[in-house]
Amino acid sequence: MLIPQSWDVSDLLGQSAVIEIVDSSTSGWGHIMIDEITFSDASPEVSLSRWVDFGPDFYAAVPFNGLSVADRVGIAWMSNWQYASSIPTSPWRGGFTIPRKLSLKTIDDRATLIQQPVANWTSLETVPEYTKSWDTVAEGTQALPLSGKTFDITTTFSDRTSTSSSSQYGLILRATSDLGQQTRVGYNFATKRLFVDRTKSGNVGFDGTFSSTYYAPLAPSSNGQVTLRILLDWSSVEVFGGDGQATLTTQIFPSDNGVDIWLFSTGGDTGGVKLNAKSIGSIYNTSSNPSSSTSSNKSSLVTSSTVSTSTLSSMTISTSPVSTTATISTTLSTTSRASPTPAAPYDFRPTYHFVPDQNWMNEPNGLIKIGSTWHLFFQHNPTGNFWGNINWGHATSTDLINWVHKPVAISDADGIQAFTGTSYYDPSNLSGLGTSVNPPYLAFFTGYFSSSGVQDQRLAYSLDQGTTWTKYSGNPIVSQQQESPHDVTKGLEARDPKAFFHSPTGKWVMILAHGGQNKVTFWTSPDAKSWTWKSDFTSANIPGLPSAITGWEVPDFFELQVDGTTTKKWVLIVTPANGSPATGNGVFGLTGSFDGAVFTADPIDTSTLWLDYGRDFDGAMSWENVPASDGRRIIAAVANSYGTNPPTNTWKGMLSFPRTLKLKQLNGKLQFLQLPVSELDATGTSLTKITNRILAPGQSLLADLHGKALDIRLNFIPAAGSTLSLAVRKGGNEQTLIKYSQSRTELSVDRNASGNTGYDPAAGGIHVAALQADSNGVVHVRVLVDECSVEVYGGEGESVISDLIFPAASSDGLSLTTDGGNVDLRSVEVRAITVF
């Protein structure tokens, strides 16, 4: 194995030296590759993570040319010169890996290459898919109800705290019934390595080196979970570990009768196991070749359906164990792969949450009210259902519920995309971009150069009440050269400007996020066009901030009055990429003081730091220019932290329902309070109202109600030890559970049985938030349910959990139950929301 070499050259300091590279090998084939020579005072470190792929069959990797920096895609020859001419294939020899999306991520304080199959790989996936969870997989092996030669399998599982050298978990692929032939793909808990064992994979005798086991280092994630994604093809296995920081590619040459798939757990039981498997169709149209439809081209699944046979393109797999099973066997079609097969019978388009008319959106931008119209701008790809080609999408509303789609407001042009930013009104025309009679509305945004990765700050303005926007001819207003002294990447990670006019100093203020640096910078300007750096605000300025909270983005900054007092606080809202209670990204808020140049944060309380405890509230931003007569600070975020993975076909990305944001002293702490905007109260129809009723264990309410777009309000007094459970989007084996535990004073959302959770390793799980009863002992919970989401508000809004769900269209039932004690239901109301 090639590893970095190091020498102590301290004795040569101040002298001239020559480094001579000599090939001392006397036999064999290979290269000497010198990619980098570095001089450092630090001790040498040998890191295996420098390898792009740890398998034997990944060679001569190259990226595709003509793509932007954000859209790098690579591919490699899947073979090895050691045995390339000997592999047992005819009439072909040699293949390529799946094209891989390439990106960088900071892991353990170092830039790490991330690889994942390109997004449109999913166009080959067929339904039904197999999804199942196990609290514990017992030691030993167990057959899965799967058989075939082409699968996309993702499994997540918990790390083990007690291990031995034999502590392993994984899958057995392309196995014969007696396991005489098998390829093992797994994880060793003791060594923290994923592995592929092909010693029994089939024909291994054509070369003396082929029968081997290969390893790749893979540490568990911060929440103790390990993820393996396995792409199985007829003669290959590609394994992607974690987020894609460890990959391992191998060829295998099994016999045709080896098609079974098993789980194995050795050296003990394995906990928290989830598995999702999708059958993969062919990329080739073989309709002209009759020999392509042979018995070896079939896949089968054992399901809990009572249907005896069906095509893979129309069946949905139920994974709950039942007493009877049926075998589904079908020949995979190779002629219908031109477009993706929908993963659900409908596209989950929400009833009262905003989504783009089509294609991709991420966080909201430039939120502003102009007259009676609420303007929503958002990161948008108008030409594709994936991140890229970013413009400012645009929609308007008069009630924050019914939205009208508008043309793109700020487009990408000349190789410069329009990244996130904010809008503000310039009533005194300080920018000079309007007139005193018709002052401009200003939009501040990041210009992203896809060819170089440079990010600078730019300005656009509107003179027609936000209908159309003109880019300022003097752009950029903050150049890469200005950013470089304050950004460790020299202007490659400075973005998301929040700009506003600060009346006490008579200056414009801009806050910039610096990706991966855990800081924002403050800038000022007399005219919103020429800017001067003033200060840095970093994690070091927040004593007690957990170190796991990293990767700050999308700052918002404004003043809020503490409810019931005359005290005002400056509020800084930040979206970190890591460290949220639900893992991954989230939104936290700080309070403090601001003098026009420097923000000083108040001491933090980690129990009140987060605005949302769910997985799907990201890039929060507030509407500006809301009249004082309204008086509300209203925020919204993008409800999606899974990129292109959610199983929607015509759109990606949804706006959270707009919510008010307040500050209030509550339970002895200054807390953020959030509740849905009151405009929702005027919509929909009441389905039921219940008052002053005791709910006892064994009883169930609301079972006669159905709905996929609901506003549910619960006010109750729980008995000691009781847990109240509200099930929504309930049908068959599916339900999303909202619970309140009296003993733990805890509100939770359980998505484990919510429907399709196999599209992303983080799509299931339970998310929790602390919640106390009010001074009268009453617990208040409000639940907004839509086609693909739940947003749960506890108390006065101090505890919020927002999550995406993807149940079947037929799963629209409800139930309200209790365990462990009675619950005094003071009031329950269920309203059906019907707006769009």
UniProtKB/TrEMBL annotation:
Transmembrane segments: none annotated. Residues 123-276, 690-830 form the Glycosyl hydrolase family 32 C-terminal domain. Keywords: Glycosidase, Hydrolase, Signal. GO terms for cellular component: cytoplasm. One of its GO terms (biological process) is sucrose catabolic process. GO terms for molecular function: inulinase activity; sucrose alpha-glucosidase activity. Residues 42-117, 353-670 form the Glycosyl hydrolase family 32 N-terminal domain. Belongs to the glycosyl hydrolase 32 family. This is Glycoside hydrolase family 32 protein.
